[in-house]
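User: Here's a structure from my thesis project, written as structure tokens. My advisor, Dr. K., wants to see whether a designed sequence matches the one we expressed. Can you design one independently, without my sequence as a hint?
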């Protein structure tokens, strides 16, 4: 059986984002292998979602930091052993550390026919990025492009940048750059549920007439949830509640900030939740203030649930946000601006709000699973035809 290896440095990535691709590969006759650090669970608390998927797992001791040289040298050797043991027709790399070491190793096997695919979920040398990001990330991407047959991007800015990289050549032909619309969202599972709305609000102790804000994502500095907590503190005259879904190093500081600002009873930190569609049913608006995003799947999932989005302006959200149409575009570190947008949506007429919900549903259609899967199947089949 043909074999494909997916590489990420944290184990939750595939069950969270890549199961559509796994199913496509299995339908094409591939045995799917997965190399990751299964001791570093991300997007969940365990690896149970991989059970029963048919995926063959390989433990690789990746460090979560690209500067963990000793750990990642060990990971390099482990990954090399996996690739030496199995004759992989394809290697598909994701995440910064996984994509770096995955391509470093896979590049050595291109001569025996292995094809290397890399999905960039957001280059770190984006416009406006800190200089240190550009000085480290761009040279690495330029170097690794030489062993990359196909580079997949998820936003227009990265697509343009990727076309300038020296992708690998095979038979004199340069590798190709593709752009996809997200990981393929199952639009049906996010359809609004009045029953779920009532149940979740009761579970969290939120009154039916409260205007509920929600944010979904890892709790780190980039997701920037603190600015929303500050914005909510400016709106004590409104009946608001803010739900923050996710886990990460900022979970304790965010709770302390809410208490310090006198809104501890208006902010709920749920930790990681597997029932995001139901939680979105309980919300009236999503706030998505990230400093940077490759795309921002959480915001698209909110739109699929008919929840308007208040989002910061970055290369990812520019792919779908229309200010005043499907939500509001704000300055990422301006609590006052975010508060103004929240209040505007709070006071919006029912008719205007319903129209904004409808535009959300229209916007997200092109990010649906069917169209994305069709393109990914073409990408994988192209590589298959070159074997």
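Assistant: Designed independently from the structure alone:
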């Amino acid at each position: 059986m043909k074999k494909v290896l997916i590489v990420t440095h944290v184990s939750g990535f595939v069950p969270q984002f890549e199961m559509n691709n796994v199913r496509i590969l299995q339908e094409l006759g591939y045995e799917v292998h997965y190399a990751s650090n299964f001791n570093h669970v991300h997007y969940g608390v365990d690896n149970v979602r991989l059970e029963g998927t048919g995926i063959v797992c390989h433990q690789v001791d990746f460090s979560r930091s690209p500067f963990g040289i000793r750990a990642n040298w060990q990971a390099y050797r482990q990954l090399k052993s996996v690739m030496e043991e199995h004759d992989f027709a394809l290697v598909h790399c994701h995440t910064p550390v996984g994509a770096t070491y995955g391509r470093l190793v896979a590049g050595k096997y291109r001569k025996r026919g292995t094809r290397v695919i890399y999905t960039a979920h957001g280059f770190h040398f984006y416009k406006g990025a800190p200089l240190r990001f550009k000085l480290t990330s761009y040279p690495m991407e330029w170097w690794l492009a030489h062993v990359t047959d196909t580079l997949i991007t998820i936003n227009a800015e990265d697509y343009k940048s990727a076309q300038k990289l020296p992708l690998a050549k095979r038979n004199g032909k340069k590798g190709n750059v593709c752009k996809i619309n997200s990981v393929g969202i199952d639009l049906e599972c996010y359809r609004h549920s009045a029953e779920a709305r009532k149940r979740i609000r009761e579970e969290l102790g939120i009154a039916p007439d409260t205007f509920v804000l929600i944010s979904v994502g890892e709790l780190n500095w980039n997701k920037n949830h603190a600015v929303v907590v500050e914005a909510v503190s400016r709106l004590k005259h409104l009946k608001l509640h803010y739900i923050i879904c996710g886990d990460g190093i900022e979970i304790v500081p965010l709770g302390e900030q809410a208490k310090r600002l006198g809104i501890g009873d208006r902010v709920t930190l749920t930790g990681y939740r597997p029932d995001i569609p139901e939680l979105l049913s309980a919300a009236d608006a999503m706030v998505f203030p990230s400093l940077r995003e490759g795309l921002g799947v959480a915001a698209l999932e909110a739109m699929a649930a008919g929840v308007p989005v208040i989002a910061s302006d970055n290369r990812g959200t520019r792919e779908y946000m229309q200010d005043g149409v499907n939500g509001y575009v704000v300055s990422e570190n301006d609590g006052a601006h975010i508060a103004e947008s929240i209040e505007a949506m709070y006071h919006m007429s029912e008719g205007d709000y319903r129209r904004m919900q409808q535009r959300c549903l229209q916007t997200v259609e092109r990010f649906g699973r069917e169209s994305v899967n069709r393109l990914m199947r073409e990408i994988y089949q192209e590589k298959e035809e070159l074997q």
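When you compare it with your expressed construct, this may help: The domain at 187-366 is CATH 3.40.50.2000 (Rossmann fold).
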